[in-house]
């Protein structure tokens, strides 16, 4: 999977990280912490993704379904709910769409969803679901998996194991650091299918 990332030379990122670290001793605005955290990951050589831009660039398939999914790494199933105009919500619990684990994509991320009727809320195939990839041992992060997210290509929005996940660390609503990328083996896909 190829996605456009935000990068910076490690040395420059370290300078910026130090500047924001110093600034945060006297200021408390949340965006300053988000910038500090982003520069921290870049000084480690990691890429940064703006998820809003990633989903806008990758778009939807011929069935008007997102080509990618993003979900907390400890999830078994990913749900996507379409919202007009061209927005959507990824969650691991279809009944709790408004918690800190959800990823909400803003209006016009995708083309406006086709409606089944005359009203905006009558969106065709409004709710979708798919399985979530597992993380193989070489890419397993430390700590709780719920602190990380997986971004992956969805072959079909049904219970079919995905192929190419990317392990992410969330920095803000839309900014994520890339920690690892891999291709699932046939064995790993079989294990996912049986979950």
General description of the model:
With 195 residues, this protein is an alpha+beta fold. The chain has a domain at 60-193. It is 23% helix and 24% strand. It is built from four helices and nine strands; from the N terminus they run ααβαββββββββα. Strands 1-9-8-7-2 form a five-stranded antiparallel beta sheet. A hairpin with a 4-residue loop joins β8 and β9 (175-181). The longest helix has 14 residues, at 10-23. The radius of gyration is 18 Å and the shape is globular.
Chain-wise SSE layout:
Layout: H1 10-23, H2 30-43, E1 48-50, H3 51-58, E2 68-72, E3 77-83, E4 87-91, E5 103-105, E6 127-131, E7 148-153, E8 166-170, E9 175-181, H4 186-193
Antiparallel strand pairs: 1-9, 2-7, 3-4, 3-6, 4-5, 7-8, 8-9
Helix pairs in contact: 1-2
- Structural class by helix and strand composition: alpha+beta
Main sheet: strand order: 1-9-8-7-2
Spans of 5+ residues with little confidence (pLDDT < 50)?
none
Number of helices: 4
Sheet of most strands: 5 strands, antiparallel
- Compute the CA-based radius of gyration: 18 Å
Estimated helix fraction: 10-25%
H/E series, N to C? HHEHEEEEEEEEH
Head-to-tail CA distance between termini: 24 Å
Shape: globular
Total beta strands: 9
* Beta-strand residue fraction: 15-25%
Mean pLDDT reading: 90
């Amino acid at each position: 999977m190829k996605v456009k990332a935000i990068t910076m030379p490690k040395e420059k990122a370290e300078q910026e990280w130090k500047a924001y670290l110093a600034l945060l001793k006297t200021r408390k605005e949340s965006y300053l912490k988000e910038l500090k955290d982003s520069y921290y990951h870049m000084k480690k050589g990691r890429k940064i993704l703006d998820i809003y831009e990633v989903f806008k660039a990758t778009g939807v398939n011929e069935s008007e379904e997102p080509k990618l999914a993003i979900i907390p790494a400890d999830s078994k199933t990913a749900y996507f709910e379409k919202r007009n105009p061209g927005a959507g919500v990824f969650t691991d619990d279809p009944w709790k769409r408004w918690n800190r684990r959800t990823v909400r994509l803003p209006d016009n991320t995708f083309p406006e969803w086709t409606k089944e009727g005359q009203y905006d809320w009558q969106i065709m195939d409004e709710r979708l679901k798919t399985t979530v990839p597992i993380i193989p041992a070489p890419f397993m992060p430390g700590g709780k998996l719920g602190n990380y997210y997986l971004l992956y290509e969805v072959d079909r929005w049904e219970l079919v194991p995905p192929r190419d996940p990317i392990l992410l660390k969330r920095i803000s609503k839309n900014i994520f650091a890339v920690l690892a990328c891999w291709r699932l083996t046939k064995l790993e896909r079989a294990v996912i299918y049986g979950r």
